[in-house]
C-alpha cells in the first residue's frame, strides 16, 4: 500500500479537536461548583488528552454533506462524552482493571472507584442533555432531528450496542472465539459508537440524505470500526506502553481474544486493508468534500489511531 500524505487530514483533525474541546470545556460543569470532586473528576476524564476520533467522524461526515461546523459541534461533543464515560467504566477493577489511560492514571486511580462510577453516569447524562438542547446553542437543528439523534446515540450505548459488546467481551475472557464471534463482539463494543458518529453527522444534514446514501455511509463506518479495532489489537502487540498511553500487552495478559491471537499479525493486517478498500468503495460517488473520510480510513490502516 502506497503511504498517504495525511497533511490535509491532520490539519482538519486539529481544527476539530480544538472545536470539540472548547465546547466540551463549556458543557462540563466547573470544578468550583458542588459537588466539586465529581465535577473535577468529570473534567479530568474528558479534557486534556485524546485523539477525538469519534468527533472527527461527526465533523468529517457533516463536511462531506455540506453541513456547517457550528451545527456539528454538539453532536460531536455528545458522542465524545459517551466515549469518555465508556473508558472510565471500562478501566474499573470490575471490568478491564486498568490503571493507565492516555498516559496518566485512570479516573478511579486519580480519584476513587465510587467517584469514577459516578463520573461515567454523569457524562452519559450530559451527552443526552447536550443533544436535547436546553439553550446550549444547539437550536439550529430541528426538534425531530435532535430526537432522532438522542435515540440513535442511546441505542449505540446500550445493551444492543457498546454495553452489550462489553458484556460479550467480559464473557469471552479465556475462551476461544472464532473470527465471526470476535467481529460480532467488536461490531457492538467499538463499532456501534463509531457508526453512530457517522450517523449523527449525516442526520445533521437537515436538507435530507437519502436512504441509499445513509446505508453506504453506515457501511463505511462499519468497515472502519472493525479496521480500527484490528489496528488497536496490532498496536497492543507491536507498540510500547509509552507510545500507546496504556499498558502494552494488556489484552494478552488477560487472555482476551484479539485478531492477532486468532488469525496472526499478517492476516490481521490483510483484513484491515480489505476493510479499508471496502470503506472507500462505500464513498464512491461523493465529491472531494468526502476526502477527509477517505483519508481517515487510510490513516487507521497505515498508522493506527
Protein architecture, described:
- This protein has 305 residues and is mainly α.
- It has one domain (7-303): Farnesyl Diphosphate Synthase, CATH 1.10.600.10.
- Helix content is 70%, strand content 1%.
- The model has no long low-confidence stretch (mean pLDDT 89).
Write the SSE topology.
Elements: H1 7-27, H2 36-46, H3 53-64, H4 69-90, E1 100-101, E2 104-105, H5 107-110, H6 113-132, H7 143-157, H8 162-172, H9 179-189, H10 191-203, H11 211-238, H12 241-244, H13 250-253, H14 259-263, H15 265-282, H16 291-303
Antiparallel strand pairs: 1-2
Helix pairs in contact: 1-3, 1-4, 2-6, 3-4, 3-10, 4-6, 4-10, 7-10, 8-9, 10-11, 11-15, 11-16, 15-16
Tally of individual helices: 16
Overall structural class, as computed from helix and strand content, comes to: mainly alpha
Q: Over all CA atoms, what is the radius of gyration?
A: 18 Å
Q: What about the largest sheet?
A: 2 strands, antiparallel
Strand content: under 5%
State the share of residues found in helices, binned by percent: 55-70%
Q: How does the overall form come out from the CA principal axes?
A: globular
How do the strands of the widest beta sheet line up side by side?
Answer: 1-2
Low-confidence stretches: none
Domain count: the total is 1
CATH class: Mainly Alpha
Second-tier CATH architecture? Orthogonal Bundle
Amino acid at each position: 500500500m502506497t503511504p498517504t500524505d495525511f497533511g490535509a487530514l491532520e490539519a482538519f483533525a486539529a481544527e476539530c479537536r480544538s472545536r470539540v474541546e472548547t465546547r466540551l470545556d463549556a458543557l462540563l460543569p466547573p470544578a468550583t461548583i458542588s459537588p466539586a470532586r465529581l465535577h473535577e473528576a468529570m473534567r479530568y476524564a474528558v479534557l486534556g488528552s485524546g485523539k477525538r476520533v469519534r468527533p472527527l467522524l461527526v465533523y468529517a461526515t457533516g463536511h462531506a454533506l455540506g453541513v456547517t461546523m457550528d451545527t456539528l459541534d454538539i453532536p460531536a461533543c455528545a458522542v465524545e462524552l459517551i466515549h469518555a464515560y465508556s473508558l472510565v467504566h471500562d478501566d474499573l477493577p470490575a471490568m478491564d482493571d486498568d490503571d493507565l489511560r492516555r498516559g496518566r492514571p485512570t479516573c478511579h486511580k486519580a480519584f476513587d472507584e465510587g467517584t469514577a462510577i459516578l463520573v461515567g453516569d454523569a457524562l452519559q447524562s450530559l451527552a443526552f442533555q447536550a443533544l436535547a438542547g436546553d439553550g446550549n446553542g444547539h437550536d439550529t437543528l430541528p426538534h425531530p432531528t435532535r430526537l432522532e439523534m438522542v435515540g440513535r446515540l442511546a441505542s449505540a450505548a446500550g445493551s444492543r450496542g457498546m454495553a452489550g459488546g462489553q458484556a460479550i467481551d467480559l464473557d469471552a475472557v479465556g475462551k476461544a472465539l472464532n473470527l465471526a464471534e470476535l467481529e460480532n463482539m467488536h461490531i457492538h463494543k467499538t463499532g456501534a459508537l463509531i457508526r453512530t458518529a457517522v450517523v449523527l453527522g449525516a442526520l445533521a444534514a437537515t436538507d435530507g440524505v437519502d436512504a441509499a446514501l445513509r446505508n453506504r455511509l453506515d457501511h463505511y463506518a462499519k468497515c472502519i470500526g472493525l479496521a480500527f479495532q484490528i489496528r488497536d489489537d496490532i498496536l497492543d502487540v507491536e507498540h510500547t506502553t509509552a507510545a500507546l498511553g496504556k499498558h502494552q500487552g494488556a489484552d494478552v495478559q488477560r487472555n482476551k481474544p484479539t485478531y492477532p491471537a486468532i488469525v496472526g499479525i499478517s492476516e490481521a493486517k490483510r483484513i484491515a486493508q480489505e476493510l479499508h478498500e471496502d470503506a472507500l468503495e462505500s464513498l464512491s460517488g461523493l465529491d472531494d468534500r468526502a476526502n477527509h473520510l477517505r483519508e481517515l480510513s487510510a490513516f487507521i490502516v497505515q498508522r493506527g489511531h
